[in-house]
Amino acid sequence: MFLKLSMNKLSSDIPSQEQILKDRQKGIGWYVLNVATLIFTIQEDRLKILLEKRTASPEERKWVILGKFLDYGKTLEETAQSKLQEIFGSTRAYLEQLYLYGDPDKKIGKKVLTIIYLLLVPNGKIKESNLQWFPVQKLPVMAFDNKEIIKYGCQRLQNKATNTTIVAGFLPKKFRLSELQKAYEIVLEKSLNKRNFRTKILSLGILKKTGEMEKKGAHRPAMLYQFKKEGISLI
Amino acid sequence: MFLKLSMNKLSSDIPSQEQILKDRQKGIGWYVLNVATLIFTIQEDRLKILLEKRTASPEERKWVILGKFLDYGKTLEETAQSKLQEIFGSTRAYLEQLYLYGDPDKKIGKKVLTIIYLLLVPNGKIKESNLQWFPVQKLPVMAFDNKEIIKYGCQRLQNKATNTTIVAGFLPKKFRLSELQKAYEIVLEKSLNKRNFRTKILSLGILKKTGEMEKKGAHRPAMLYQFKKEGISLI
DNA sequence: TGAATAGTGTCTTTCAGACAATATGCC
DNA sequence: GGCATATTGTCTGAAAGACACTATTCA
Fold first, then answer.
1. Which residues of B fall within a CB distance of 8 Å from A72?
2. Alpha helices in chain B (DSSP H)
């Protein structure tokens, strides 16, 4: 039955059974690639990650990292970002490749590879209902080994935050220096000295005043800054 | 013809044509994974990389990065290291995953993914004749986009050398401090102050004296050091 | 005027960088 | 002794860290 199917629908961009069998002889496996996205944001002064609830077994009702399989003709980045488009209706985000997992299930030979992407978004509203933000300090019951993957992602984020401006990915385009400092403090999980933070960040010459002030609350208004160029810099 | 073949040899660890076609409908592609290894060493006070000469077209006689396709039941690391075993008869090396390339050939949809691994080996003898060490400053004519990949690998190596002990991967287990300094100088492409280098590296507390001295040449003998633990540390 | 956050002055400690001296082997 | 590399002493200036002060808004 399925042989008929394969004859009719064989398209140029999919491998033939013949090729796969030949490759098997030569010790070459065929795989699907799961593009997994660790989508982080800062909400309520906490680092949060976006997760999805499983509706099918196995591990039904447990939570998982978002992911999407790679399709022919798409790049990895396009695939990772298309997730953002679905969820937020926007693709403004910092995006970075983290790690490819390819550990096989020794018994059957696993046919799924997983590439992890790190995405930082300014706090956004979710359009889908099966998704939810969770503080990384307080994750729900997670399926498979997803908890460890998140831990690894947090670690990389922290390392990167130590010597780059990566946390800028959490902020709007224009921001107060105290907002930037707060973002660092949340990610690094330690408080910073205001005087030293401001001196350091301004001495790098990567920020510029917008000229606009933000008046909010019963206190002195703050200058709004923005980065001179997109992307992250070393600090 | 090949349908018959597929019926006879269908094994449990390879995907069926039926599954691949179903996946195609759902926007899921199937790929082979090339595990590419950037194998670096230091020879004659230069950073060198191990390359292979192509014997088939296209790009015949041009040089390429070493690589091996991932097979079922193997891990990525195992695959990368098996290359070392073939070449040097040993797998002692520093190994680190760098980057997954998945940019498609827009016309046909590329079916090969490439994961780049970085490997540092102490200067070793090659068993195979179609391989050759090349200084990274003086690469031969290279096939495809391999030159850019090597450039990227060198950059990552340099970045990593700036704040870790990664260059230890080039040294034998026991070494002189001046050897270690030399390795840093070659990778970072700048000379370092002897006094400051020694103070810094010793203050980290990651090295210990072996008690052995190396007498070589008409000068004061040097203490041999070794790392307290395997792997790389921050500096 | 007081509460709250923005922004600055300045001292101390630490560390990177530079230069130079002494130590110990072999010939 | 002379050469070559190993090892150590010490000065200087820049940056990190800590503490305390002044500035501006609103209620």
1. 29, 104, 109-111
2. 2-9, 17-25, 76-88, 146-163, 177-188, 194-203
pLDDT tens, position by position, A189-225: 999 999 999 999 999 999 999 999 999 999 999 999 9
- How far, in Å, CA of B215 to CA of A83, rounded? 62
**Model pLDDT, residue A10:** 42
Cα-Cα end-to-end distance for chain B: 62
**Band of pLDDT at residue A12, cut at 50, 70 and 90:** low
Of all nucleotides, the one whose C1′ comes closest to residue B176's CA is: D6
Flag if B30 and A12 touch (Cβ within 8 Å).
Answer: no
For residue B39, list its beta bridge partners: B119
What Cα–Cα distance (Å) separates residue A74 from each residue in B17, B28, B106?
22, 10, 8
pLDDT of residue B220 exceeding 50: yes
User: CB burial class (10 A; 0-12, 13-18, 19+) of residue B165?
Assistant: buried
Q: What integer pLDDT is reported at residue B12 of this predicted model?
A: 56
Percent of chain B's residues with pLDDT above 90: 77
Residues 6+ apart with CB under 8 A from B201: B177, B180, B207, B235
Model pLDDT for residues B93-151, shown as the tens digit of each residue? 999 999 999 987 766 677 899 999 999 999 878 877 789 999 999 999 999 999 999 99
Helices B177-188 + B194-203 axis angle, to 10 = 110
pLDDT at B113: 95
Strand D: protein residues, Cβ closer than 7 A = A 193-196, 200, 215, 217-221; B 176-178, 194-195, 198-199, 217-223
pLDDT per residue as tens digits for the range B150-167: 999 999 999 999 999 999
Q: Does A5 contact B18 at a Cβ distance shorter than 8 Å?
A: yes
Residue B24 forms contact with A (CB below 8 Å)? yes
